Amino acid sequence: MRDPLHADAVRTLKAWSAPDDEEDLLRRDYLDHLEARPDGVWRSCRPAHITASALVVDVERGRVLLTLHPKVGLWLQLGGHCEPGDASLAAAALREAVEESGIGDGLLLQPADDPMPVKLDRHAVRCAGRDQPENTHLDVQYLVLAPADAVEQISEESLDLRWFGFDALPTLTDGSVRDLTARARKLLG
């Protein structure tokens, strides 16, 4: 029997409509991974596992909250590994957003009635440290809205935490974060 988080990951990825053929291929790769690996959502699954992340957006001010990731050295969306208490991938993304942003109340997954991913991204990372082999994160990325009065608080999981305008993303970010921001901005209209 597969665990509830694994079942939710399969349901979510089957229900999600990829925006193009390339991302649909990635979606199918994620589903193949989950079919082959009952432990596919857990950090212990090697050489790849599902992760969940969230782009936190302050719509009123037209900005996104990014963390300077200590292992990667880039400004990224908030997110990480699934945990045993996570009821869904969306819940994992929201938990990570709350933990890493320090914004305790008011973060809302989008769409609120049935949160669905905005984007998928596959990337190699060393989960356990520099002396460990790379592992592949099969990241499922969500959109989270922050209240207008949200005050962020840096956590031990990042070197820095800052708001950046949609059109003023930092140099030390990557194409994936830029694409995620563009998609979020388009969804928010």
UniProtKB/TrEMBL annotation:
<protein>
    <submittedName>
        <fullName>NUDIX hydrolase</fullName>
    </submittedName>
</protein>
<dbReference type="GO" id="GO:0016787">
    <property type="term" value="F:hydrolase activity"/>
</dbReference>
<feature type="domain" description="Nudix hydrolase">
    <location>
        <begin position="47"/>
        <end position="186"/>
    </location>
</feature>
<dbReference type="InterPro" id="IPR000086">
    <property type="entry name" value="NUDIX_hydrolase_dom"/>
</dbReference>
<dbReference type="Pfam" id="PF00293">
    <property type="entry name" value="NUDIX"/>
</dbReference>
<keyword id="KW-0378">Hydrolase</keyword>
<dbReference type="InterPro" id="IPR015797">
    <property type="entry name" value="NUDIX_hydrolase-like_dom_sf"/>
</dbReference>
